[in-house]
């Protein structure tokens, strides 16, 4: 016994829908679960609900699974994989027989002498090539040494810019390297000097002279005399000068100036 519950605007419609869903059986029973409710206009406010009970049909003509056919196919498959392949067996047998005949054959008949002669010729050829390369390398090295000696002799006699000779060339190159490695450009040094001059004018100390050194990471300003009589006040003033100067340069050149400082000193 099987049952179906259907809802519709009326009991008749619910029975009809349930009967169609059940497969239109000839024998069935109906049970009204809820009756429809309508408002004063006549519209359905609550649908009707019915249950239909019927006997389920069984298909007697449905074909049962044939386990025998599956068992036969499985047996044939196992038989196919378990039977040995005669052609493969014959090929392996012939291969092993040929390999055995080769091993049993004497080693006298093998042509060893021509191979030995070829190896000796190749060794002689490679040895002569190696000797030629070493001779060429030695000749090139001697030519390079002679050129370096002649250039060294010429450089000792020639002056540089009418001031110093070439034996001071190493010192000049080292100085040039230090100048090139300095992170302070000419424009930075000029702007920093102008900023210091402006601060001295604002303090009415424009008669004080100073020097600038930007050869390292620190740009140093040295005044020829003290700006303030009190030493502690002067240290605080120099500290403020350094901070304001670096902030001005950062704002103008749009750089961080990492590991760069401004240092102010004076003569006592």
Would you give an account of this structure?
This protein is α+β, with helices and mostly antiparallel strands. The chain folds into three domains: 2-54; 125-180; 182-266, GMP Synthetase, Chain A, domain 3 (2-Layer Sandwich), CATH 3.30.300. The protein contains seven helices and ten strands. It has helices spanning 11-21, 67-82, 86-104, 113-157, 169-181, 186-202, 231-253; strands at 2-8, 28-34, 37-38, 44-46, 48-54, 159-160, 164-165, 210-213, 218-223, 261-266. The strands form four sheets. It has a three-stranded antiparallel sheet, with helices on one face. A three-stranded mixed sheet has the order 8-9-10. Helix 7 links the parallel strand 9 (218-223) and strand 10 (261-266). Helix 6 packs across helix 7.
CATH topology of the largest domain: GMP Synthetase, Chain A, domain 3
Strand order of the largest sheet: 1-5-2
**Overall domain count:** 3
Helix content: 40-55%
Proportion of beta-strand residues: 15-25%
Radius of gyration: 55 Å
Backbone shape: flat
SSE topology string:
EHEEEEHHHEEHHEEHE
**Number of strand segments:** 10
Distance from first to last alpha carbon:
119 Å
Oligomer: single chain
Number of helices: 7
